[in-house]
Amino acid sequence: MSSFAEGKEWLLHTAANMVTSMAASRRFLTAAAAQRLDTVLSVGNLWPLGLFFAGWALIRVVGGPIGVAVKSALRLWGAYSVVDSVQDILGELTDWAKVCAKSTENSQAETEKAAELFAVAVMHGLLDGLELLLIHRIFVSARRVLIRRVPVPERLAVEMEKAKAEAKQRAETEAKQKTETEAKRKQRTDAERDAKQKAEAESKQRALAEAEAKQAESKRKRTMAGELAEAAGARRAAQSVEGIGAGAVVAVAVAATLIVGVVLVSRSSH
């Protein structure tokens, strides 16, 4: 096998291993991170990125004759310039590259390990760099060349379509869950609002009842105070009348005594 053919063989298998692990990494991500991953790594972007990542891994990580052969292939296709841009993004993913970089298909265990390594990189901000790479003019130009030169392998195309279907189903499930959650939240909010309004109405009723009770009690006390005042006035008047009557009797008695005394004295003088 010529060095070019060998380099292409390594490039295809490594890219396929990387794409498979990137698609499988969703299982190790949060729902929000997986949704963003689906947006950035769309089916249209996934295979070109896999080829560029594979080129970086085989040239910069594996190196040797394989790296030289891959570099020649990418130069021939006019896509080598992307490797430097990928280096800035994937510099910390050498362990992932070592698991994926081979001339054969990864085993299930290797795919799981690579998927977990890639998911860790995603959680550490990998997608920010990928978003910038995807709109870079060098990537856009090289992407068109690579897709034409190296079409998606049939096996991988099936897996990518499966991943696309799973992503769609997951999005629909999440949308349904979000709708149900919002409905439950609204129901809970409405119930809390109704309970609050009921409590406020009951509180107002209690306050009104208490105010009416206080008003009635105050009126009762005023009425009782008036009645007590009238009774006290009547007693004082009666006492005054009784006092005046007793004084008059005493005065009459004293006067009578004086008159009798005067009469007796007058008779004695004669």
Number of strands: 0
* Order of helical and strand elements: HHHHHHHHHH
Instruction: Please give the alpha-carbon distance between the first and last residues.
Output: 188 Å
Radius of gyration: 53 Å
Largest sheet: none
The proportion of residues forming helix, as a percent range, comes to: over 70%
Binned strand content: under 5%
Structural class: mainly alpha
Principal-axes geometry comes out as rod-shaped
Question: What does this 3D model show about the protein?
Answer:
The protein is mainly α and 270 residues long. It has a domain at 3-152. It is built from ten helices and no strands. It has helices spanning 3-24, 31-40, 43-62, 64-77, 81-90, 94-100, 108-123, 126-134, 137-149, 154-269. Helix 3 packs across helix 5 (81-90). The model has no long low-confidence stretch (mean pLDDT 80).
Helix and strand arrangement:
Elements: H1 3-24, H2 31-40, H3 43-62, H4 64-77, H5 81-90, H6 94-100, H7 108-123, H8 126-134, H9 137-149, H10 154-269
Helix pairs in contact: 1-3, 1-4, 1-7, 1-10, 3-4, 3-5, 3-6, 5-8, 6-7
Short synopsis of the structure:
88% of the residues lie in helices and 0% in strands. It is an all-alpha fold and 270 residues long.
